[in-house]
Amino acid sequence: MASPLVLKENFSGDILSNIFKVSTNEQLQDYKVQVENTVYGCHKLMLCAVSEFFQCLIRSDMIESRTNFVQLKDISSSTFALILKLVYTGQDVVTKDNCIDLWYASDRLGIAFLSERCQEMAISCITVQNCGQMYQAAKQLESKPVLEKIYALILSKFKRIKENGAILLLEFEEFLKIISSDRLVVHSEDFVIFSVIDWVMNADLGAPNTNNANKLNYSPKGQSVPLDNFDDEIKEIIGEKEEIDAMGSNSEDSCRKVSVHSSNSSEKKVKLLKTSHGRNAYLPKLLHACRFHQASPQCLSQVFLHPLIQQDPEARKIIFLAVLDKVRCVKRRHHETDKRTPCACNFDTIFFRVLMCFALITLAMLLALANE
């Protein structure tokens, strides 16, 4: 039995060099590929050796096999030229600038080793600026390693990626996974809540909603409304504080009866809400993933009055209960402070009086000894 042929490294390099030299000889070319306005003379053997697409095409009984000619679409001429360079020379043509185009083309043509190389390059060059483009490619090409790298980047750079619009490209399950994660790095929960509203409102490939009618103003942590003024904020949302106390534990039923002091939604706002293209249905689930106990009063008041929330009974109930919990928490803190303060004052007063009595007794004893 003959042993398999083993080529030395310098032999394989020479063979590839000679193949490249004769590749431009039209007499030896037996197959033509048109990409855009350019026709490339190729060789069936080389195309079939690297591409499952060409192997199935050339071995079939289709007209492209009988005429030895095929026209490729969805691939640019420059990208196909790089693929031919790789096929005939063995050179690594993948860079961070062309890896996405080559990735799409290699998947289209069934060039497995090139797809793997492009995936490796994509993982190594994912940044805040290009993660949106990388995400779209990874989703279409079903690349789990690239998606995992993008998720990790979003968790650590959520605010910057949201500002680039890439967050708005995420599908529901992926967005829910991000905002539910304990590893999400944000300076304030307000930004997460506002991002949920933006994601629902913007479904057109991440096109930001710039209309001021539904715009939420994000305030960094430390610039929200003081807790002492929170009662005034609540009055604008759900009426007098006594109404909240009267609700008591029956808050679930009360949230349907509460009077909201906000202007009626205009036709313009209703039209804006229709642009969410079905994302409204995901709003309650996304709100349940938010951590409202870490949100500022200003954030809760803005979100509650937003027309998107007002038109969704379940979402309105979620925000209302969050507001109610915040009010109770604030009142509890104020109540505990009021209890501690008189106790501290009484203790200081008693201590001062005892000290004065002790000083007077000591003074009297000293005077008595002096008279003796």
TrEMBL record:
Segments passing through the bilayer: 350-370
Signal sequence, start to end: none
InterPro entries reported for this sequence: BACK (IPR011705), BTB/POZ_dom (IPR000210), SKP1/BTB/POZ_sf (IPR011333)
Superkingdom to which the source organism belongs: Eukaryota
Keyword hit for Cytoplasm: no
Domain BTB per the UniProt entry, residue ranges: 29-96
Keywords, comma-separated and alphabetical: Kelch repeat, Membrane, Repeat, Transmembrane, Transmembrane helix
Matching Gene3D superfamilies: 1.25.40.420, Potassium Channel Kv1.1, Chain A
Cited SMART domains: BTB
Keyword check for Membrane: yes
Name of the protein: Kelch repeat and BTB domain-containing protein 3-like
